[in-house]
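Practice problem: predict the structure.
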Amino acid sequence: MNPDKLFDYLDGRLPAAERAALEERLISDRQLQRELAIARQIHAGMRGNSREVLLSTQPDVTERGRKMALRVGAVFIILMAVNVGVGLWLIARHESKNPNRALLEAQTRQQITKSLEHAATATLTPLPSLDVSEITISAAPGRLDAVSDEVVAMVGRLGGSATKGLPDAHHIGVLVDLPSNRESEFRAAIASLAGRASGSATPATTGGAPGSTTPATTEKKSFVVKIVE
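Answer:
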């Protein structure tokens, strides 16, 4: 996905048709969800309408830890390669007249390759990526659309936006984007809705009174609410 399109989406400058297509993809495309989460963090550090990013003055402990892990892993692999090279040299020196030398070297190289691949996989495993949170709730048969409408209305009352995906035979997804300081209210409302989704179609409540004074925030958080029968 073009990063400029993600930034235009976050700035509200994306045309309606492209915005709808992007939100439809976000419901099921995990890679695009991660890209949006990263773009949102970068977007939060931008100054005005420019693309200048304001770096935090606090050290990023997670990033530093990841870099340190990569360095340690690289040193570990290099040391292993050196030890293996010395071993091969000693083997070649002692087995230069052995008629089975070629076969032994081939077997040794194969074992070395497997060992290096295993060490690289174990040492350089990346840290968990940023992702869009998923919430799954159940609905009575025939009430998928009604429950999804309640979720959309609930998000609107919390100052966020929601986009319904195309309904499937037994489930439907709703992409939710709302201020991060309303997350607890949202989760409480979803829990309340899930507890009665198989009963009456009474509109869900958000847990906040009209005219709530919850401070506004520019930080956003995304969810994918999956409603299944």
